[in-house]
Design a protein that fits this description.
555 residues; 19% strand; alpha+beta; 5-stranded antiparallel sheet; 7-stranded antiparallel sheet
Length: 555
């Protein structure tokens, strides 16, 4: 392939990563407080509208075909054979408590799955990464079965995506599957899958995370038969099999991949495991020991721990985004794209945290082996920026999606006051302009709502289990209604929160409050609002920039 084409492909793929960057964190069942397995997902893309997908279970006729459309673009890719029975799915979890999430990484530019236009069409390839997830959720009951389904589909129908890391979890096991296309030369993919130990945590964030493959551990490691041979044939690996690194052979490893991608996983490890300073040079300087695929945490993690981690901006670390110059006048962790720029011929970057403004939807998938599937599987689901949204309990058995999350309720170009995505964006985009002032108000509402979910869960699930003994259908009806009530109530609370923020912080002032109400004079007139001005950094910067004394008050 000529160098110009490779360069064009590299630019195209870099744009894809920038547009569709995501984060997924993992906790094994012995690493959690209650024995759940958990995986998370921030689906980050400026063109992704936040809504909750649902497919009912169904029976299909022999010979029936299924249309496949690329998840990112809705482009029609082809058809595959339908199976006899498909399972019900709610978002990224199915009725059997199987959950799958992903993040995309840049694979070698020599492995394109499509040419930039204008270009000839590639060999037939039908299964993109998004379709792999949602088709597999309808066909598999366990994580191991999901890996078999996914790898069989790409072998038979071809893989229409680049580099991908998948988190695959059932109530007992969690796996990381990594896959890259074989490019334009061959149909299919090379892949490796490693089971995360039950007492460990893991994660991936747009960079391949599998370095060494334990080929001898057949129980906890699966891989394509040519995972090493293909790299040897291409000239990308020449050592012994035991020294083979999936990441080094197939992924692009540059500074942005280390800092902007592995950095997010490091932040997760750093919060819950000891000794992570050892790996900071890997993230910030591209040297030292590689960040491991998994580590053992010093505490058992709860659902709330995972939710809070998905809101992280490198809080309390050397990369804390509220503490560096880019935080601006309001100590903001928000950084708008592009995250890299050149000044005086020197390239610079902003940090890329787990929480970001372009998130379409966010989730924490919780799977519990000791409960019936209808009760045990919970998709804690929110939309928009995870740091400013609420995680609502969506049980995997629900038969109807709440209106606020329903497909067709608004879209990226059409605002809807009943859409949680648009209401949350209205709140968040007010906060971004005066972060340090407004964020505490949002945080209070967010915490109040999620505290109420945590307090209600034992009673709700006890009632659901009692109903399940008599009639499982009653449990499904009950949990569907409860999920709906939670989501709709939270959206209503955020509508009121948006109104409150607009009134309280109007025109750069802050209205005074007492006992939860805005203060008025004895005559009912508004009390004069506070004038908080800016932070100290702002005033110092203005003074230092005013070299002529133009702004100095004359006396």
């Amino acid at each position: 392939m000529n160098k110009k084409l490779i360069s064009a492909l590299a630019l195209m793929l870099a744009g894809v990563q920038a547009a569709f960057a995501c984060t997924s964190l993992i906790a094994g069942k012995n690493a959690t407080a209650d024995g759940s397995t958990m995986i998370t997902y921030n689906a980050d893309a400026y063109v992704l509208y936040g809504e909750l997908y649902r497919q009912p279970a169904a029976d299909h006729k022999k010979g029936e075909m299924l249309d496949i459309k690329e998840w990112d673009t809705h482009k029609y890719l082809g058809q595959i054979e339908q199976v006899e029975h498909t399972y019900a799915t709610v978002g990224n979890m199915n009725e059997h408590q199987l959950a799958i999430t992903e993040t995309t990484f840049d694979c070698r530019p020599e492995l394109p799955y499509k040419y930039p236009p204008p270009a000839p069409p590639p060999p037939p390839a039908i299964m993109d990464y998004g379709s792999l997830i949602y088709v597999t959720l309808q066909r598999a009951r366990t994580a191991r079965e999901a890996i078999r389904v996914m790898t069989s589909l790409v072998e038979r129908y071809g893989y229409y995506s680049g580099g991908e890391s998948f988190s695959i979890a059932d109530p007992n096991e969690v796996w990381v599957l990594e896959m890259v296309s074989k490019g334009m030369d061959e149909k299919g993919a090379v892949w490796a899958a490693i089971r995360i130990p039950d007492d460990c945590i893991s994660g991936h964030a747009n960079q391949s995370r599998i370095h060494r493959i334990p080929f001898g551990d057949k129980q906890n490691c699966l891989y394509s038969k040519d995972v090493v041979k293909y790299a040897r044939r291409k000239g990308w690996f020449k050592g012994k099999d035991e020294d083979f690194s999936f990441c080094q052979a197939y992924a692009v490893s540059d500074y942005l991949a280390y800092r902007g991608c592995d950095g997010r996983v490091w932040a997760y490890f750093n919060r819950f495991a000891d000794g992570m300073d050892r790996y900071l040079p890997w993230v910030t300087e591209m040297k030292g020991d590689a960040l491991p695929l998994y580590v053992k945490p010093t505490k058992k993690l709860s659902v709330r721990d995972l939710q809070e981690m998905m809101r992280d901006h490198f809080d309390g670390t050397p990369m804390d985004m509220r503490k560096e110059p880019g935080a601006g006048d309001w100590d903001s962790p928000v950084r708008y794209a592009p995250l890299t720029w050149t000044q005086d011929s020197v390239e610079y970057m902003h940090e890329r945290p787990i929480a970001t403004q372009q998130t379409g939807f966010t989730l924490v998938a919780q799977m519990r082996s000791w409960l019936p599937d209808a009760v045990g599987g919970v998709l804690w689901f929110g939309v928009d920026d995870s740091s400013l949204s609420v995680y609502n309990p969506m049980y995997c058995c629900l038969t109807q999606v709440p209106e606020c999350f329903r497909q067709g309720n608004g879209d990226s170009y059409n605002f809807s006051w009943t859409s949680a995505f648009w209401v949350n964006n209205w709140v968040a985009n007010q906060v971004y302009s005066r972060y340090s002032q407004m964020y505490p108000d949002v945080r209070a509402v967010q915490k109040r709502i999620e505290d109420s979910y945590e307090a209600a869960a034992p009673q709700i699930e006890a009632r659901a289990l009692e109903a399940y003994k008599e009639n499982p259908a009653k449990t499904v009806e009950m949990l569907t209604a409860y999920s709906d009530s939670c989501a709709m109530s939270a959206t209503d609370s955020y509508r009121k929160l948006g109104e409150y923020l607009l009134v309280k912080y109007l025109d750069g002032r802050i209205k005074k409050e007492k006992d939860g109400k805005f203060e008025r004079t004895a005559d009912g007139y508004p009390v004069a609002p506070l004038s908080p001005g800016y932070n100290e950094n702002y005033y110092r910067r203005v003074v230092e920039s005013d070299t002529t004394g133009w702004l100095k008050v004359r006396k």
